[in-house]
Amino acid sequence: MNEKQLIARMVQEINKDVESDVVIMEICGTHTQSIAKYGIWEIISHRIKLVSGPGCPVCVTDKRYIDMAISLSQKEDMIIATFGDLMKVTGTESCLSEEKSKGKDIRIVYSPIQSIELAKEYPNKKVVFLAVGFETTAPLIGKMVMKAKKENINNLFFLTSLKLMKPILKEILKDKNQCIDGIICPGHVAVIKGADYFSFISDDNNIKTVVSGFEPIDIISGIYFIVQQCKGKIHNHDKNLYKRCVKEKGNETACKILEEVFVHEDGNWRGIGIIPDSAMVINKKYEKFDAKKVFSFSDLPKVIEDNCICKDILLGKEIPTSCRFFGNKCTPQHPVGPCMVSSEGTCGIYYRYRKEG
Ligand code: SF4
């Protein structure tokens, strides 16, 4: 049986005998993107509800963080280095894209390594890298912090908004009004932290769990194993469906970097609020590279929260088409909320692939 035939076979089995709704959350924006791109919404039964979770790093970056980045961009001799996705995310009064158009030195980079190169190229300027992401990107950022220390680079700083998946998932699962039957866990987080990192979902909550890759066959396999368990047709299967990349205990080297550079503290998730121990922040040993410790932020505006349902989208309680702004006032060209900005944001994905209802 080739891959195409295998997918067709699994879809047939998934769609057979679905007698009640099965709600499956894919936590990660990359999964949502693949589901939309490969038309998975269209080929599975309407009784299988795929809802998105909080795994788009840009979407959960709070306004205060953007305000801080903008404030830094206004200082003398400052270069801000950022991933492109962050440019249009609104702070309280502006966004990085708008500040760049006003002449601020804000540069799009594709890897944290480029922030080291910038710092070396401009020794008389200060370079601040906007370190946003989850467990997936944090090890490389941590490595750059270590490199900056080792090479005694004194003009490079990191403004962190690095978040952890486990605490936010625990928060979602605490909500007894949330009916989730299964969760597709992000393969790339599991590459770093290991498949066991997500064991608590099924162990503590009786929710079917799979760790999945990002190809159509990976996602369909994930849906298949969850749905078949819900129907009682499969018991005790191996939850790690991404064995070609994910070990049970993860990547030891990457985990050591996380331990070396970061500590955990309460994190502010946009629209959602403070989640205990959900942020990775630079520890004392490396604090001279922590932009939050080095610079003063006394001039920040008072935060006004977004006037939209992004929070409910991020928690899998609503879908984008339920938002009154979707597709009219809020589009990727003129985003109202953060979920419309990033290529991994659920609203942006719905807009591009137009899933109705
Ligand atoms: Fe927020 Fe726009 Fe999505 Fe509505 S459509 S929830 S305003 S991002």
Q: Can you describe what's shown?
A:
- By secondary structure, this protein is of the alpha/beta class.
- Helices cover 37% and strands 19% of the residues.
- It has helices at 3-15, 29-37, 40-43, 63-73, 96-101, 113-121, 138-150, 165-174, 187-193, 199-205, 216-230, 252-261, 291-294, 310-314, 346-353, and strands at residues 22-28, 48-55, 78-82, 106-108, 126-133, 156-163, 182-186, 208-212, 262-269, 273-282.
- The radius of gyration is 21 Å and the shape is globular.
- The protein starts with a helix and ends with a helix.
- The structure holds iron/sulfur cluster.
- Iron/sulfur cluster (SF4) is lined by residues 308-310, 313, 320, 323, 325-326, 330, 336-337, 339-340, 347.
Features:
4 iron, 4 sulfur cluster binding; 357 residues; 10 strands; alpha/beta; 15 helices; binds iron/sulfur cluster; six-stranded mixed sheet; iron ion binding
Give a topology summary.
Blueprint lengths: L2 H13 L6 E7 H9 L2 H4 L4 E8 L7 H11 L4 E5 L13 H6 L4 E3 L4 H9 L4 E8 L4 H13 L5 E8 L1 H10 L7 E5 H7 L5 H7 L2 E5 L3 H15 L21 H10 E8 L3 E10 L8 H4 L15 H5 L31 H8 L4
Parallel strand pairs: 1-2, 1-7, 3-4, 3-5, 5-6, 7-8
Antiparallel strand pairs: 6-10, 9-10
Helix pairs in contact: 1-11, 2-15, 7-12
Bound molecules: iron/sulfur cluster.
The site of iron/sulfur cluster (SF4) has 14 residues, from α14.
Keywords: Iron, Metal-binding
Protein name: Hydrogenase formation protein HypD
GO molecular function, one term: iron ion binding
